[in-house]
Amino acid sequence: MQSLLALQSGELKGAVSLKLSENLTEFPKEIFDLAETLEVLDLSFNKLSSLPADFGRLKKLKIFFCSENLFKVLPEELADCPLLDIVGFKSNQITTVPAKSINPNLRWLILTNNNIAELPTTIGSCKRMQKLMLSGNRLSTLPEELGNCQNLALLRIAANKLHELPQWIIMMPKLSWIAFSGNNFSKTPAVETLSLINWHDLEINHLLGEGASGVISKANRTIGDETSEVAVKIFKGNVTSDGLPEDEMTAYIAAGYHPGLVNLIGQIALHPEDKKGLVMDLIPHHFYNLGNPPSLESCTRDVFPTDMKLSEKQIVNIAKTIASLAAQLHEAGIMHGDLYAHNTLIDDEGSTLFGDFGAASFYDKTTTETAYALERIEVSAYGYLLDDLLSLKDEGLSREVYTTISRLKDACLVSAPMERPGFQDLVDVLEKV
After folding, report:
1. Domain count, the chain
2. Regarding beta strands 154-156 and 177-179, do their DSSP bridges make them parallel or antiparallel, or are they unpaired?
3. Do residues 372 and 347 both lie within one domain?
4. Which of 10, 33, 68, 377 has the most crowded CB, counting CB atoms within 10 A?
């Protein structure tokens, strides 16, 4: 984090990246002194409500984050930066998105957790758009022009007021990750309550990890004279970029048992702050993440350590486990929405555990055509996972296995969603490998 004082004193001259968070109420004019070099600007966590009329002087700006501020209108000045690639205005107070505010060069737009009721038709001019984050707004419709964004791969529209999921959306050629829970058309089914576990029977030890929806800790659970180690996830209760935490919990419970899922033990009862939570098996220490989340550059594709290699056994086991689990989810009408390597844990033998239901959505299996298409959107995400697995192969991968998985990958990624295989089709092929 840099300081306003350093900026004003000229110490940051020539900077390519600038991050300021000092309760700013006005855009510091000294930022323009960096116009010849500045590519990344982060003014999140301030009290800004407008941009200067000459914001376009930042001709080299590619990435602009302005989340957690006080904007009520998405600034039209954003359109004046010719190279602007990524824009984030999460958690402001935005109600209006003017037609001019949509920069046609955008590849990634984040407007999560605002008060937007309508998007302009100019969103369709963003031919490069790959990632669009709109969860937690008041949208009741989406402009049909959005269908012109043929490169759109990830769409988050959860926790809005949409009355339907338009058919043109689910037929988009590259759409692979979608979250739509918490809308008028998305009905969350009743699920069986898990065993209730008294919060006072748990002793929290230490933090294991924290995500947008909640905090996971290692804990001891005592039943009578016996104590066992478990993992505890406490949900934060706020809208995330993917959707609502309660929908995540419901989807995880509805998924049922599968060897590729971390086993659920029960639900938290009597939490002192009345928070919701789950108790799960503790993941063995020898498991590790298959991949890392997408970077600003890769946008929708996971990134991996440069020295990472996978054996044939690992590749086949991962491919089989994820296909089998996804088939089970879609049989239950559950769209995971975030089928990625970074949500996958593996070990050296290829044993696989899949998780993070934060983007999960329920859909009606009786609406045959829509259900068919939604499964094949997720199949596209699986195709990218197969592509990642093949990119990590070591020299031991046989030509036969490589050819089979490569053909499956190609079938999963055809541009016409209805021509892709279903997950059970994939399972049937992989059983022979």
Report:
1. 2
2. parallel
3. yes
4. 377
